[in-house]
Structures are given as structure tokens and as C-alpha cells.
């Protein structure tokens, strides 16, 4: 009885029954030595709270069923028995026994007797049932085992199969793997190749854009061109590598080259067409497409040249027809009027034509600048061009040259006609200067080598030649003319005045044609030829003619006339700065003539003053004989001479000479007269010296001289003349000689003289 | 009209244009024509300016409203000795900028002669704008604004004062003339189609006509349509399968 043995150890643990058992414990404690009490206390102490025990008891009670009324008794009395019975009789179904019980405690008793047997029976019965049940189980298990075995064999078979399959699929897998790798590789290659192709070949559309006539030149086309260029560049880089040129590289180069060429050809066709159309329009604007096209074509100079040739041809034709239209038809409804309408006004006619050309050049240049995509430098046409010599500049110059070149023929024809038909030398000169002005302008604008420049040079030269011819003819005609011998006047004649007037006008034109930036030599060079042609023959003619006339008409004062003419010419020249050289030349001649007149005048006033004879005597006096013995210089004669002189000094001629008053230039009069007076004074001094000289044996020389004014006092004479006292005559004469000998000095001293 | 109207947003250099107009700049020597023009084209004052020799050319594109106008400007020498040269440049000008110096009465007195010259030598539709230059030198003023304005009204020309030193009103005369010319085109008195009128259509205007977008000028669309057609033909020439491409 496991439950019974274990129970004594549990009282302390069972908290439930503690209060009910506390009495018994105190009792048992007192009788602990008694075995019965020990037994009792053991039994009493048995705890039935255990679940297992309860279960056993319940089984036992089922085995031996008890009537309801006696239950209390049994529980109190038979607690101990019931324990043993219970545990054995639980599995026993004994309803009959239970029912049979008629006497209380009968079944208990019976139970006590038969418990073992009952138990065994019960056990056997149970065991049999177990056996039976297990036998079934066994059978089932055997069956199961068979199945399992079958299964296993199947499984083995399957496994073998699998192994086999595995074996065989391994190959497949390997194959598949390698195939996959291969595919990957191929794909890689493919993408590389497609990238390569995308980079190194042109797409269908791009080829189309480059080669097809269907696709207009535009963004698409230029992009395709760019790409082709890039491909070729890249390809060249590739082929420059270690491997050298590859077949693919060569092929790419070949195909792109052909496409590129086709592209360029297409640009050329485009440009040609555009240029043909553009050139015909008078308005000159350039579309971005053309600019781009020209930029591209610059890589193919021969094609560019071809395109530009076409442009040039059209522009030539257009400009020519516009020029002709402007000349003959004028603007809309006659405004502005046709240039040729003013052909009667040669300057305007020529000027209008040249201005038209100039304006056409300006427009042409703007047009070309926009074609070559040059930013206009804001430079003013006409100002000097300092731009660096770029390729475009060269082209532009050439194109401009060609474009306006065609205008040269009609221009030259008309200008030449106009120039040759001019009668007035002034107009010829104005035209020539106008042409010269435009020649300079054009040279600066389109260069010296341009056809227009050389044509202008030609026309300008013709115009100048016509002008020179005309003034030369004029001068020669003048030189051949003869003066009216019956004209007593000493002023310059009409022919000379007219001639001088023309000269004056020519010089005015020349002055107005100066730009202000020439140096002096340039300025002089421009007019010297004119002056030579117009002055020299006149001077020559003046002198020879008047000398001739003076011979025939002795009373006519040729010297004064010549001086008047020369002074007049000099006055004409003096108004212009650029005539200094000619003025000097003329002054030299003038000085010479003035000296002749001065000499004549001195002689004449010596005569008038009565000192001529004595002077002659002194001058020609030589040898040992004293002067006082010479007939003209004897004291009595001297006395008379001095008296005359004194009288003359009171006269009007001291102040001014009637002869010289014919001179138109007052200064000239004064100068010559004063020079003559100075010489007179010097002569007087000479006389005084000679008289005072003891060798000449004048008695009472001082009295002789002092008897008449100026009383032998030379300085007094200077005062009377109102002159500064001068050096000795010899010296002044030698000075004169010197100045005569040296031309350049002559004019200087001449000027000084006239200024005094 | 307030001159500020013209000063605003007129500076723009563009490649394409609607109209091309030819102007001449005239007036006595030393009135500052070249400086005015220089300021207009370069936007700066021209120091130490020399007398102009003959004629000088420059150009600039301006914007007036929606229109872009390219101006070809001929700057003439004011000196008498260049008259024979400069007279030839009046031909076919659409506009003239007549300049005098407000500090020099002489240059104002002579205006009539200049105007008469311009009227006889240029096209009859010539638009003239009178400019009193050197307006910055108020202290030296010899010509009153009112007097010049009266003269301008009597002679039927536009008038304003400007300073090429400070740049005040420098663009206004050019735009004023352009505007007057555009109005003349609109009213039909001026036809850019004809050579010698001093005005012609630019590519931009033609393209616009071509794309049948609106042009604010009634008469323009009428006359320009023909031109537009011509352009279309031109375009056709190099589109599909024609011989030229």
C-alpha cells in the first residue's frame, strides 16, 4: 500500500484537516508507545486527500456498491478496509454483488474475503482485454510494417531513380550554366557592339538627313554632320592606338567620309540655291541656316569657294542691275529721281554715282559680315581698318571687290564722259578732287588692290589729266596773247585778272579738298603742279610782253607794270598757305624786278636832285688828278649841284615819287622809294667825304658843303628822309648783290624790306 | 509725347529684323552729329571727336514695340566743303536726323537751308527729326526750347533736345523717326517694297507674314502677302525632290 505508507509523512503538510485532527494528536502523543495506538494513529493519520488514493477508493467503491442508508457507518468504521479493497477491486465490475447485498456490511465482508481473488479475476480480465486489444494492435502494426517496408522499397527505388536523374541532370545543368554564361557574354558583346555602333555609325535617320534631298538643311542635318565629324575624330583616336588601323576603323572612316562628303555636297547645293535666290533679292538678310552652312563649309575650302563664287556672281549681277536702275529709273514713282537726270550737273552726277557705290559697299559689307557670322566691330566705314588679317577678312575683301567690280565699267564710262566734256577747268578740278576723295575712301574701305580702287585711280588720273590739260591750254593761250599796246594803264590787264581768278578758284577747291591730316609736303605736292602750270608762263609772258611793249611805247612804264602784275599774282597766292614755295619763287623774280626799278629810280632821283653829274664824276674818278679838277666836280659846279639838291629836298618827291605811285602795292612804292632815298643819302655822304678829302683839293670844303642844306651833315639828311641811318653804300650794295645771288635769301630780305 | 517713352528698352542688338531703314544725320559742323551717333551705336560719349570727313557709316538694330528695325546710319560731315559729297547721300533716305547745337545760334539759324536741302534731295516722304544737341550745357544756351519747338512745328518736323555727353534722349530721335516711318507705311504713303524708299522688309517680317501671324499694319499685310508667297516658293525650292538640292 504505497498510499498508506506515504501518508504518515504527510500530516504536517495537510493544512486542511489540521483543526479536526489536532485532538487525536494530543491523544496519540500521550499513548505513543502503544503499538495499537501507533497503528491506529497511523491509520487515522492516513491522508486520503491524495488524488491517487481517492481514485483507488472510488474504484473500490464502484466494485463493491453500498446501499445509501448505511454509508455513514461504513465511512467511520471501515475506513481502513475500504482502502485495501478499493485499490484492487476498482477495475472489477460487480453490480450483481452490490445489488445482492441485503445485509449491511455483507459486501464488505465478502470483499475482505475475496478481495484478492476478485482482484486477480479483475486483473486477468483486464489483462485479457489488454492482450486482445494489443493483439489487434500487433496485427495492425504488422500490417503497417509491411506497408512501411513496401514504402521503403519504393522510396529506395525512387531515390535510386532520383540519383540517376540527378546524375543525368547535372550534365544538363552544367550545359545550361555554360550556355547562360555564353548568353551573358553574347549580350555583353551585343550591348558593346550596339554602343559601338551607336557611337561609330550613323543612324538611318542621320544618314538620311545627310544624304537625302528630301530632308531640308536644318537642325537635324547639322546634328548629323556634327556626329559624323565626331565619329571620325573618335575613330582616328582609336586607330592611333597600338593596334594600328583596324578593318572596322577603316570601314567606319570610309563610310563616314562618304557620308560627310555627301553632307558637304548637300550644304553646297543648299548654299548655291540660297545664294542664287538671296542674291536676287535687294534686301540683304541672312538666315541662321546659311550662316551655319558657311561655317561648316569652311572645312571644305574648295566647296566654299564654289559657293562663294555663285554668291559673288549673283551679287555682281544684282548690284549691276540695281546700279543701272538707280541711274536710269530712280526710286518708286520717280523718287529719288534717277541719277542720270542730273547728268547736266557734273559734280552732282559723279557724286551721286560714287555715293551710291559707297552705300552699296556698306550694305554689302554688312551682308558679308552676317554671312561669315562676324560681329560688326562698330567701325565707321571710311575710317581706317585695323582689323587683324583673318581668313574671313580676306574672303570678304575679295567678295566685295568682285561684287562692286562689275560696277566699274558703267561707272568709268559715265565719269569719263562727264570729265571729258567739261569746259570749265574749275569743274574739272572739282570732279578730280571728288574722285580723289572717293578713291581714298574706297581704298580704306575695300583695299588698294580692289578693282574699284584701281578703276577709281584710273578715272581720277584721267580727271586730273583733263584738268591739267585744260589749265595748260589756258596758260599757253595766255602766254601767246599780246598786250594792247595802246593801253596806257599800268594795272594788270584783264587776261591776267581772269587767269588769276581761275587760279584762285582752283586753289579754293584744293583747299577745301584737304582732309586736314596731310603733312606740309603732301599739301604742297598736291598743288605745285597747278601753280607751275598757271604761274610760270604768265610771269614769263608778262615780262617779255611788257619789255616788248616798253620798247615800242617808251613812255609806258614797263617796270612798274611788271611789278604790278607780279605783286597781284603774289597777292593771289598769299591768301593760301600751301603756296609758300611758289610765293618764294615769285618773290625772287619780284625782288629782281624791284631791284631794277630801284636802280632806275635812284638814278632818276639823283638826276632830279641834281647830284647826278657829281656822282658820276666821283664814281668814275680815278688816277692822281684831284676831284676838284674834274669838270663836273669843280667847286662851282658842285655849288650848283648842291643848290639844286637843297631845292629838291624841299620838293614833294622826297615823300613820294609820282612814278612809283603807279605801283598798286603801296608797300612796294615805299620800299623802293626808301631804298632809293637811302642810296641818295649814301651818295651824299660819299660826296661829303670826297669833298672833305684833302687829296681832292677843295678849298673851304666845309663852307662849300655847309652853304646849302643839309649842310654836309649826313645824319640830318637821314632825318629829312625819315629813315634810319644806314651803312655805307658799298656795303649795302654788296648786301644787295648777295641777296640777288641767293634766291631763298632774296625773298626774305625782300619781305623785310616791304615790312619796313 | 514724353521722350521717356523711347528711352525704355530700346537697346537690343539682334540679328534679324522686320524693317531696314536708311537715315542720314545732318546739320552744321560741330553740332555733335557724330557724337550723337556714336552714343547711339556705342552707348558711350565720343571724346576728342574730329570733324567728320565726307560720310561715315554705322548701323544698329533697335526694337520698337514688337518690331525690330535695322537702322543704316549715314553720318555726314557738316563742313561746307563736304557739301558736294554729302548731298549725294540724301538720296533714298527714309529718315533724317537734323542736328543743331543749342549753345550755337548760328547752327539753328541755318536749319532752314539744311531742311530745304534734305527735302529736295531725299525722298518726298522723308521723316525729319530736329535734335537740339548739347542739352547738358544749359548755361551756354543760345536757342530756347520754345523757339526751336515753334520752328519745328512750322516746318512740320519732330523735335526734341538731347545730350550726346550724358546720353539723354540719344535714342529717342532715331526711334521717333522709325515710328513715324512705320506709321507712314501703315497709312500706305510709304511702300517698303519699292527700291529707293529707304525702307525695306527684313527677313523677320517676311517670315512672320509667311507664318501668317498678325502684323499690326493693315496695308502691310496686303502688300506683303505677295512677298510672303514668294518666300514660300523659295522654301519649296529646297524642300522635297526639287532640282536644287
Automatic annotation (TrEMBL), chain A:
<comment type="function">
    <text>Acts as a component of the peripheral membrane COG complex that is involved in intra-Golgi protein trafficking. COG is located at the cis-Golgi, and regulates tethering of retrograde intra-Golgi vesicles and possibly a number of other membrane trafficking events.</text>
</comment>
<dbReference type="Pfam" id="PF20653">
    <property type="entry name" value="COG6_C"/>
</dbReference>
<dbReference type="GO" id="GO:0017119">
    <property type="term" value="C:Golgi transport complex"/>
</dbReference>
<dbReference type="InterPro" id="IPR010490">
    <property type="entry name" value="COG6"/>
</dbReference>
<feature type="compositionally biased region" description="Gly residues">
    <location>
        <begin position="747"/>
        <end position="756"/>
    </location>
</feature>
<dbReference type="GO" id="GO:0000139">
    <property type="term" value="C:Golgi membrane"/>
</dbReference>
<protein>
    <recommendedName>
        <fullName>Conserved oligomeric Golgi complex subunit 6</fullName>
    </recommendedName>
</protein>
<feature type="compositionally biased region" description="Polar residues">
    <location>
        <begin position="27"/>
        <end position="40"/>
    </location>
</feature>
<dbReference type="GO" id="GO:0015031">
    <property type="term" value="P:protein transport"/>
</dbReference>
<keyword id="KW-0333">Golgi apparatus</keyword>
<keyword id="KW-0813">Transport</keyword>
<keyword id="KW-0653">Protein transport</keyword>
<comment type="function">
    <text>Acts as component of the peripheral membrane COG complex that is involved in intra-Golgi protein trafficking. COG is located at the cis-Golgi, and regulates tethering of retrograde intra-Golgi vesicles and possibly a number of other membrane trafficking events.</text>
</comment>
<dbReference type="GO" id="GO:0006891">
    <property type="term" value="P:intra-Golgi vesicle-mediated transport"/>
</dbReference>
<feature type="compositionally biased region" description="Acidic residues">
    <location>
        <begin position="727"/>
        <end position="745"/>
    </location>
</feature>
<comment type="similarity">
    <text>Belongs to the COG6 family.</text>
</comment>
<dbReference type="InterPro" id="IPR048369">
    <property type="entry name" value="COG6_C"/>
</dbReference>
<feature type="region of interest" description="Disordered">
    <location>
        <begin position="725"/>
        <end position="756"/>
    </location>
</feature>
<feature type="domain" description="Conserved oligomeric complex COG6 N-terminal">
    <location>
        <begin position="106"/>
        <end position="212"/>
    </location>
</feature>
<dbReference type="Pfam" id="PF06419">
    <property type="entry name" value="COG6_N"/>
</dbReference>
<feature type="compositionally biased region" description="Low complexity">
    <location>
        <begin position="1"/>
        <end position="20"/>
    </location>
</feature>
<dbReference type="InterPro" id="IPR048368">
    <property type="entry name" value="COG6_N"/>
</dbReference>
From TrEMBL, chain B:
<keyword id="KW-0547">Nucleotide-binding</keyword>
<dbReference type="InterPro" id="IPR027417">
    <property type="entry name" value="P-loop_NTPase"/>
</dbReference>
<dbReference type="Pfam" id="PF00071">
    <property type="entry name" value="Ras"/>
</dbReference>
<dbReference type="GO" id="GO:0003924">
    <property type="term" value="F:GTPase activity"/>
</dbReference>
<dbReference type="GO" id="GO:0005525">
    <property type="term" value="F:GTP binding"/>
</dbReference>
<dbReference type="GO" id="GO:0016020">
    <property type="term" value="C:membrane"/>
</dbReference>
<keyword id="KW-0472">Membrane</keyword>
<dbReference type="InterPro" id="IPR005225">
    <property type="entry name" value="Small_GTP-bd"/>
</dbReference>
<dbReference type="InterPro" id="IPR001806">
    <property type="entry name" value="Small_GTPase"/>
</dbReference>
<dbReference type="InterPro" id="IPR050209">
    <property type="entry name" value="Rab_GTPases_membrane_traffic"/>
</dbReference>
<comment type="similarity">
    <text>Belongs to the small GTPase superfamily. Rab family.</text>
</comment>
<protein>
    <recommendedName>
        <fullName>Ras-domain-containing protein</fullName>
    </recommendedName>
</protein>
